[in-house]
Specification:
There is one protein chain. The chain is α+β, with helices and mostly antiparallel strands. The protein has a single domain (2-76), classed as Glutaredoxin, CATH 3.40.30. Helices cover 38% and strands 26% of the residues. It has a four-stranded mixed sheet. A hairpin with a 2-residue loop joins strand 3 and strand 4 (59-63).
Length: 81
C-alpha cells in the first residue's frame, strides 16, 4: 500500500489532486493511504512552497500543479492491491 499525502490548504487544485489520485487508484485496483495535509507547518516541513504538493512514501514527487493521470499512475505502478 502506498502512503500518499496531498499538501495544501484546501484550494480547488488541492481538491482536484485528491480526486485524481483517488480515481486512478480505484481504476488500477490499488489501495492507497491517502491523506490531506493542511497545516502550514506540516507542509513547510516538506519544504513545499507551492501547492498542491504530493508526497509518496515520504518523498515529495510533485509540486505546484494538478498532476496528470499518467503521472499518478506511474506513482502507483508496482503497488499491490
Amino acid at each position: 500500500m502506498k502512503e500518499i499525502k496531498v499538501l495544501g490548504t484546501g484550494c480547488s487544485k488541492c481538491k482536484l489532486t485528491m480526486k485524481v489520485i483517488e480515481e486512478v487508484a480505484a481504476e488500477q485496483g490499488v489501495q492507497v493511504d491517502l491523506q490531506k495535509v493542511e497545516d502550514l507547518r506540516d507542509i513547510m516541513a516538506f519544504r513545499v512552497l507551492s501547492t498542491p504538493g504530493v508526497v509518496v512514501d515520504g518523498q515529495v514527487v510533485h509540486v505546484g500543479s494538478v498532476p496528470s493521470r499518467d503521472l499518478v499512475a506511474s506513482w502507483l505502478k508496482g503497488a499491490g492491491a
